[in-house]
Anti-sigma regulatory factor (Ser/Thr protein kinase)
Amino acid sequence: MTQQHPPLPRVRTLDVMPAQTPVPETPPVADPPEFPPGGLFVHPALFYAGEQEYLAGTVPFVEEGLRAGAPVAVSVPGPQLAALRAAVGPAGERVTWLDMTREGRNPGRIIPGVLRAFADRHAGAGRVHIIGEPIWPGRTATEYPACAQHEALINLAFAGREVTILCPYDTVGLDPQVIADARATHPEIIDRDGTHASDGYAPARVVADQNLPLPEPAGPAALMDFDRDALPELRAFACRHAAGLGLPPRRVGELELAVNELAANSVVHGGGTGRLRLWAENGQVVCEVADRGLIADPLAGRRPAAMSTNGGRGLLMVHHIADLVRMHTGPAGTVVRIFVS
């Protein structure tokens, strides 16, 4: 039997020490992305305190989608996933359940690999219902800028789509700044006072504000400058150093693919040359590629790309391989840093 919970307001559904790599210290010169005004796409943040409020805001959302015969997916951290699945009961057999701590460990993978993957699979099936919780108290300060940018970019990625993505935020466990940023990345807020438009909605500002210069490594880093002719040597260099830092063989091979894609992008789009650095940090291998190019498309690497597509898959593949991708782009160039374990 489905458990009963005190109701929260329903979601609107529209009928729902080597040499340092040069790092720019000014905002990017590319025009900020234009985020279309509200329309078919609905993207509310659900502010909750404790499990009771969590279930009161999420269970009706799932049940409403199921009653409408709509595709429903839930991608949230494991404990919330278990609680919500138990509360929905047998009807949950028609729901796609995903653990966000695995599927969305790299925030840059969530739009193409979780949200778009599900929505595209059900295109034409009516309004798609998704619960996505990409930010939880266990997220690190290193991960957070990518998380905040992800939440902002959802609005751009799904503009005009008949999709509702409900994003729960733990107001007890998360830093107040995270909650403030959620008001900027979500056009609607659901809280104890009801459902209302966010007076702080400014996703383009969040994308720009989180385009932060990346900190220098705390310890020594292997370094190699490269051009087109040096790509084979660069791949071998990265593999040798990653293996020496203890990266498992399978991941060394995957890192080689990521390095190749990033370096090829530098050669083609970043001025023909670049610099690779590689080091160990908090039990992970960190690899960074810097060049003189500017990434003007904020959704680069976040759109699904068909195998028949010429280009567009390199950064997407990097997001799929890495545990985390951090990026800074600006007038002095672009730095892409990947974390692999």
